[in-house]
Amino acid sequence: IMTRKKPLAAAVIAACLLITGTGCTMLPAGNPSMGIIDIVPTPAPELTSTPKPTPALQTPPVATASPEPAVTDALAAATPDPNVGLPPQETPDPSKPMVALTFDDGPSKKTERILDVLEQYGAHATFFVVGIQLEKFPEIVKRASDLGCEIGNHTYNHKNLTKISPDEMREQINGVNRLVLEATGKEPALVRPPYGAGIKDETVKANVAYPLIMWTIDTLDWSTRDTQSTLEAIRKDMKDGSIVLMHDLYDPTAAAVETIVPELIEQGYQLVTVSEMFAAKGIALEPGKYYRKAFE
Ligand code: NI
């Protein structure tokens, strides 16, 4: 994938990408056309629509789940509804199974639909955002963070880290960290390398001062754009400590999230962020190291 002849091939790829307009993160070996150019599709017509107003403070899911006029906010917070999963910010129980759902290449308007589900069930996920999208939707990233989700770094404009200089790597990553800090008040602690690139690249490992997070379950949602196949990919390989890769760019993905979140909770899984999961498993994340999973 990475050893192509450059100018002509790049031109062909550019043309091809312009036509398909696809914004994948991961490229299977048989699909080399995705590896070089970074195009994150923008749902152009929706840009003009008014984003849903974000409440300044997210109350726990109980507040919306039971319209109980007599219950005060403090009381509601103290008595979580057992039917709506984990309250936000709760520390996961290490003795129970857990999974980290992760979403790359956003934020986008589709992210809101995913956040609605996470909020409803008090579930956490991790969003590996790209800077060019974050600049368009900072309020969505703020909402995710307020819900207890983790915001990770997916570079400023989806760069393959193995194809840029160490200086560019730092720019790509520090730029997004600044944007996330501005939007949420917190700096990302994790990087997901675009295309999953660099796992054997010592230059990347030496120059990216953050843990590099891969995945155990690749749903290929960007390719199939199919809710059923996304669900099947998750169900087939789900186990305690899994990291699931999806993209918060597509309605079929959001639809899969609407099904899989209550299903996993029903099965006893805690839906946690990547950092929460590794902490609960007692695995210390180190800068410049790649991680695929939180199980042996
Ligand atoms: Ni990506």
Topology:
Blueprint: H1 7-20, H2 61-65, H3 73-78, E1 98-104, H4 109-121, E2 126-129, H5 131-134, H6 138-146, E3 150-153, H7 166-184, H8 202-207, E4 212-213, E5 217-218, H9 221-224, H10 227-237, E6 242-247, H11 251-266, E7 270-271, H12 274-280, E8 290-291
Parallel strand pairs: 1-2, 1-6, 1-7, 2-3, 4-8, 5-6
The structure holds nickel (II) ion (NI).
Nickel (II) ion is lined by residues 25, 104-105, 154, 158, 194.
Bin the helical content.
Answer: 25-40%
Mean pLDDT: 81
Task: Summarize the biggest pleated sheet.
Answer: 6 strands, parallel
Tally of alpha and pi helices: 12
Order of helices and strands: HHHEHEHHEHHEEHHEHEHE
Q: What oligomeric state best describes the polypeptide chains here?
A: single chain
Low-confidence stretches: 1-6, 12-89
Rg (CA only) = 19 Å
Give the number of DSSP strands: 8
Report, as a whole number of angstroms, the end-to-end distance. 29 Å
Structural class designation:
alpha/beta
What does the overall shape look like?
globular
Strand percentage lies at 5-15%
**Which ligands does the model contain, each kind named once?**
nickel (II) ion
